UniProtKB/TrEMBL annotation:
Keywords: Oxidoreductase. InterPro entries: NAD(P)-bd_dom_sf (IPR036291), Sc_DH/Rdtase_CS (IPR020904), SDR_fam (IPR002347). The keyword Oxidoreductase applies. It comes from the Bacteria. GO terms for biological process: fatty acid biosynthetic process. Belongs to the short-chain dehydrogenases/reductases (SDR) family. This is D-sorbitol dehydrogenase (Acceptor). Signal peptide: none annotated. Pfam families: adh_short_C2. GO terms for molecular function: oxidoreductase activity, acting on the CH-OH group of donors, NAD or NADP as acceptor; quinone binding. PANTHER family: 3-OXOACYL-[ACYL-CARRIER-PROTEIN] REDUCTASE (PTHR42760:SF133), SHORT-CHAIN DEHYDROGENASES/REDUCTASES FAMILY MEMBER (PTHR42760). It comes from Hydromonas duriensis. SUPFAM superfamilies: NAD(P)-binding Rossmann-fold domains (SSF51735).
């Protein structure tokens, strides 16, 4: 590998599996020291295997990103171990859907707490550290193609991801004088373990056999198939590296051509 992230400390939220795990693997291969924030009490088997492979460059911290005290404590622990954070991969998120007239307050509160509040305050903590330490760092927020448009069954989730894109633009403008870059990635349909949950919800409300929605959305992608977590990892490495030093306030679509902007 090219070691594009050599000696950088990257903090990744929601990285116990799926996209976050794939990005962690890519960052480690590129030479970074990595801290994972995840709500799970213990690291997944995949993360534990990575920790055994990189015992001096990977740390796992339980953190509920909806709790500001846990974010503060998590950053203190992360920076005590690996030094100031230079890269943030801001990925923690949850998904839910329902017909618009059945969307509940509980679902609204839960989605916005994790996908918007959590993302914003993890970003704020990372940016505050970068400013304090005069680190010309990079923040990468995970949006979604759902943030580019509305969907009849996915109103709350789409709104949260639109907020991610907006916060990315505002933070980029605020941090530009400090030389800190803030960008986003908007994945399309990515084949992660979460898709079993997504597929089951669509099956319920669209009266489809299990697995049918997943098949349909893959075929609807212009390239003809669902993406893999590694497809996001490549973009995440690029945006974290010095190769993207003149890119900020952008949200990159990594979606097989589903959204054209």
């Amino acid at each position: 590998m090219s070691q594009r992230l050599l000696d950088k400390h990257a903090l990744l939220s929601g990285a116990n599996g799926g996209i976050g795990l794939a990005v962690t693997q890519a960052y480690l291969k590129e030479g970074a020291r990595c801290t994972i924030f995840d709500v799970a009490a213990t690291a997944s088997q995949d993360v534990q295997q990575l920790m055994a492979q990189y015992p001096n460059r990977l740390n796992y911290i339980q953190c509920d990103v909806t709790q500001l005290a846990q974010i503060e404590a998590g950053f203190a622990a992360a920076e005590s171990k690996f030094g100031p954070v230079g890269v943030l991969f801001n990925n923690a998120a949850i998904f839910d859907l329902a017909p618009l007239l059945e969307c509940s307050e509980a679902s609204f509160d839960r989605l916005f707490a994790v996908n918007v509040k959590g993302l914003f305050f993890v970003m704020q903590a990372a940016l505050a550290s970068m400013v304090k330490n005069k680190t010309r760092g990079s923040v990468i927020n995970l949006a979604s193609q759902a943030g580019r448009r509305g969907e009849a069954l996915v109103a709350h989730y789409c709104a949260t991801k639109a907020a991610v894109i907006s916060y990315t633009q505002s933070a980029a403008l605020a941090m530009a004088p400090h030389g800190i870059r803030v960008n986003g990635i908007a994945p399309g349909v990515i084949d992660t373990p979460m898709w079993a949950h997504v597929d089951s919800l669509f099956a319920k409300y669209e009266h489809l056999p299990l697995g049918e929605k997943k098949k349909q959305v893959g075929l609807a992608v212009p390239l003809g198939y669902m993406g893999a977590p590694a497809d996001i990892a490549g973009a995440a490495v690029f945006l974290a590296s010095d190769e993207a030093s003149y890119i900020t306030a952008q949200t990159l679509n990594v979606d097989g051509g589903s959204v054209m902007s």
